[in-house]
Amino acid sequence: MASSIRRIPRRLLTIQKVLGTLLGLISLTFVPALLLAVVLQESCYDAFLKSFLLTAMSGLGLWWPVRRLRYELRLRDGFLITAGAWVLACVVASIPFMLAPPSLSLTGAMFESISGLTTTGATIITHLDGLPRSVLLYRQSLNFYGGMGLVLLAVAILPMLKVGGMQLFRAEATGPTKDTKLTPRIAETAKALWKVYLVLTLMCMLAYWAAGMNFFDAICHSLSTVATGGFSTHDASFAYWNNPMIEAVAIVFMLVGGINFGLHYVAWRRATMQPYQSDTELHYFAYIGLVVTAIVTLLLWFSGTYGSLPEALRHAAFQVVSNLTTSGFTLEDFSLWPSLVPLLMMMVGFIGGSSGSTSGGMKVARVVMAVRQALREVSQLVHPKGQFIVKMGGHRVSERIVLSVGAFCTLYMICFLAVMFALAATGLDLITAFAAAATSINNMGPGLGDVSVHFGTLPPVAVWICSFAMLLGRLEVFTVLVLLTPAFWRE
């Protein structure tokens, strides 16, 4: 056994060690639901106990043979560990959905766990109101763990990852600039982000409770709101309460989740709003939200969908914020709204929130840079000898980042089209294929056509395609696609 281990490259054994440790950490995510099931005497407690034991023992089995190994991780190791950790997490997270109500098939359970951890918020489960509370809490917690990122959590609390932590951080982080550290040590940066995330989630829970939710629903929805995850404990989502105050709380904290958490941290440390006021990406994020909300409000009002302007504004603001931050909460089926509104609601999901947020999509900074790069090319055609640069926040953006953003946007749209064509090939109509592809890769949740409410009517092969697309979107394309290149596997 020892001799066979020695023949395996040290970097692969180190990756095995890290993945084993991560599985041990992931096994703890079953504990809150297990304890709740025991307290409430729900019969599904054994499903969470079996899931915990199986995951913990698997992690121990991977970690134990190579526990003494030391090797410094490289950037490409970070990609492999991040992708591997997400796949393993989604696999083990699916176990309770098969062993406990709603007793899903492997296909359905994997879809539900991937949707939860990637904070997509799409579901194939119906009759949520009848599920055991421990299952509902577990399902909501998937949004919470996936919001800031499982690997980022591991970097924050596992000392063994202090070597190579930057590689893992760069593979997990979202947005065009992945090297920004809030503190000198990357583990401290990860801890800072998670502290802000925890505080905001607690504030959200208290706000929901004060606004009229019961304590259980307030806990569950706080776990999915700041994470911009979209899971709810009720089939009707926020329409269950029909409470403008609860909706206002949701809008505020969805927006908070859609803002760069680095800004939250700096503003908190300095006790000032200046970081928000000076951030260009946040300004564009706010402009887009306001303009789209105004357009949707007027279209809903003029079409007579709602009898008054305030009522139209209430529904438009909630749904625009939900889709722009890719949260996935709903007040009603927006696919039934008139004119171009449903298409507009789908398109804002491609923009998403800010870099470094819990939102999906391409991110506002990338979209702004891509537009400015396009305008620069137009200006260059008009003035061939002119010198034009791309700026963000009054500062020049390096050509390396501009090219990287262009490559990302191109690959992102190619992947979206590939997923859409693959879904259409399974027999879905074009509207459903477009919406399912868009909502999956943007980690957005609700869609149009047959996926306007849930994904339960899709054929199994389409469900697997959407599951892959959700992971592809959450890991921002490059982390997955780089593993498919032959050069990555060459020493």
* Mean pLDDT metric: 91
Helical fraction equals: 55-70%
State the end-to-end CA separation: 24 Å
The SSE order reads HHHHHHHHHHHHHHHHHHHEEHHHH
Question: What characteristics describe this protein?
Answer:
1% strand, mainly alpha, 2 strands, 491 residues, globular
Describe this structure in words.
It is a single chain. The chain has 491 residues and is mainly alpha-helical. The chain has a domain at 2-185. The chain has 23 helices and 2 strands. It has a two-stranded antiparallel sheet. β1 and β2 (395-396) form a beta hairpin. α21 (430-441) runs parallel beside α22 (460-474). The longest helix has 27 residues, at 399-425. The protein starts with a helix and ends in a 10-residue tail after the last helix. The model has no long low-confidence stretch (mean pLDDT 91).
